[in-house]
Design goal:
Structural class: alpha/beta
Order of helices and strands: EEHEHEHEHEHHEHEHHHEH
Number of strands: 9
Strand content: 5-15%
Largest sheet: 7 strands, parallel
Length: about 260
């Protein structure tokens, strides 16, 4: 059986916030929250702390692997204090944590400072889909620009933490530029994937203005099978590159090769 989504990265997920101030247009968590009436398109960007989730008790899992935090929101300055508490609860219980974020430099600095004694238990995965800050701003309106994300990668790397990248979704046809610019600061892996279910998610998230739909179709065309195969040919010899299932399907790789703890 194939391994998909977050289970390509981790054995479980942990979250304590409903909503995300980054308000990315293509967000799958926003789509789910709207579908199940936990949020509306207008209220998604308002982060609400779930106190029972925040105060949950963690135990070390029975099998080896990472807990992915977060998977349905991000670690933003607005609730940094709570995020540090949540992370500590996981780490002191003996868990390994995969921190997935479109990083704010101030947040990364605090995490590195607070958990300098847990470096062997933390793997950062920084989401960067383009080196072009204008493109990032369009699709991820309130998330940090490219330079801040790059600085965050470098900061974590120079402070001895394990680092990796998520280039899913790719937001243009130039993901090679992200790889070339940042791979020297990556200790683990660089994951590359397409923009999945883009029109469906934009529709669910009420991001259906003419400009967004036009750019969505342009992005879908940029990620045609032919272009994905060319990308795979260019980067397949890079040992740091790992391919998400959206790419594996196109190039004929075995999807089941991705394991949840293979991070």
């Amino acid at each position: 059986m194939g391994v998909f989504g977050t289970y390509e990265w981790a054995i479980s997920n942990a979250n304590f916030i409903n909503g995300c101030s980054h308000d990315c247009k293509y967000c799958y968590s926003k789509e789910m929250a709207i579908r199940f009436k936990r949020k509306t398109p207008a209220t998604w960007s308002k982060e609400v702390v779930n106190k029972s989730s925040l105060n949950r008790t963690f135990h070390k899992p029975n099998k080896d692997g990472y807990i992915m935090f977060p998977s349905s929101h991000d670690v933003t300055p607005l609730h940094l204090g709570e995020s540090l508490k949540f992370l500590r609860n996981m780490l002191v219980a003996g868990n390994k944590v995969l921190i997935v974020t479109k990083p704010h430099l101030s947040v990364i600095r605090e995490i590195c400072k607070e958990f300098k004694d847990y470096k062997e238990k933390i793997l950062f995965r920084f989401t960067i889909g383009s080196v072009n800050s204008d493109i990032l701003k369009f699709w991820e309106p309130n998330a940090p620009d490219y330079q801040e994300r790059k600085q965050s990668v470098i900061y974590a790397y120079k402070h001895g933490f394990m680092t990796s990248l998520s280039c899913e979704p790719m937001l243009d046809a130039n993901i090679d530029e992200v790889v070339n610019d940042l791979q020297k600061f990556v200790t683990d892996s660089i994951w590359i994937g397409k923009a999945n279910f883009l029109i469906r998610r934009l529709t669910a998230n009420h991001s259906t203005d003419k400009e967004t739909i036009k750019k969505a179709h342009e992005l879908i065309n940029l990620q045609s099978d032919d272009n994905i195969k060319k990308l795979y040919k260019r980067l397949s010899k890079n040992k740091k590159i790992k391919w998400k299932e959206s790419v594996k399907k196109v190039v004929g790789l075995n999807i089941s090769e991705s394991k949840g703890c293979d991070v």
